[in-house]
Amino acid sequence: MNSETELAPAVASILEAARERGGDDGGAVTVDARSVSDALAQADADGRVPVIAEVKPTSPTADGTREDDPVELAESMVAGGATAISVLTEPSHFGGSPAALTRIREAVDVPVLRKDFVLREAQLDVVEADLLLLIVRFVDDLEGLIAAARERGFQPLVEVHDRKELETALEAGADIIGVNNRDLARLEVDLETFESVAPHVPDDVTLIAESGIASPADVRRMREAGADALLVGSAIMDHAGGDSDVRENTRRLVRADDGTDLT
After folding, report:
1. In the chain, N or C terminus with fewer CB closer than 10 Å?
2. Given a cut of 60, is residue 3 above it in pLDDT?
3. pTM for this entry
4. What is the pLDDT of residue 262?
């Protein structure tokens, strides 16, 4: 794990809260996961950009909070063409919960990603999800945690920010990798981050662009750089808009490759 002195204060606070959270006392979670590779292939076959739309009530970088029912939000995203749904389960800084993920997974028929700060094996055993986020920067035993996640049936999405972290992820056996365009030291977003890392990702690895994707033009840019899918939160949730149409926000990004001028 990298030095916490390199983290933005908000991220350091999130990480500290994550250390204090345990797992569930009910024992190991096992999952019959919905295949993300099948979902991505179906989106491509349908002519949709594979978008993983994120249910994120709020965040340290958001302009506001969405109070909508998370299930209704997820259903609107799927209706707009989302290939999968990401659900924040971190409660203190993002307003998420495992219970919300469970309700969403019961309501939709696409893969659901649990997005949280998972640091150790016990924290895997909280809720059933199809994918599970593991952040290279915060995990000490990445290979062991990937193996433990797979034993339970999860498909680990391993997040990196630079080429060094990419090498760590590949050495640990990651086959679904997300490149986070947000620098956790300054919370700044730069789409060139993905463009600099993507050429070094093997062809047999599923590659996901994360953060900072705000428009159809951004979608096309990330796709041209090699993204198999895009993880989009704020642009779809539109925290500042309050009652913004989540379905329409999703649709605009999903259709970005079809030749229609949606900018």
Report:
1. C
2. no
3. 0.90
4. 41
Give the chain's domain count. Answer: 1
- 228: CATH: 3.20.20.70
Residue 198 domain-assigned? Answer: yes
- The set of catalytic residues is 54, 56, 115, 159, 180, 210-211
Residue 240, exposed/middle/buried by CB under 10 A (0-12, 13-18, 19+)?
Answer: exposed
Neighbours of 150 (CB within 10 A): 15
What is the pLDDT, as a whole number, of residue 61? 58
Q: For 123-139, what is each residue's pLDDT tens digit?
A: 999 999 999 999 999 99
Q: What is the pLDDT of residues 164-190, one digit of tens each?
A: 999 999 999 999 999 999 998 888 999
Give 204-239 pLDDT, tens digit per residue.
999 999 999 999 999 999 999 999 999 998 899 874
**Which token pair is 122?**
């016990």
pLDDT at 194 over 60: yes
Query: Is the sign of the CA dihedral 248, 254, 256, 259 positive or negative?
Result: negative
* DSSP for 89-157, written as a single string: --HHHH---HHHHHHHHHH-SS-EEEES---SGGGGTT---SEEEEEGGG-S-HHHHHHHHHHHT-EEE
Question: In terms of residue numbers, what domain contains 115?
Answer: 29-254
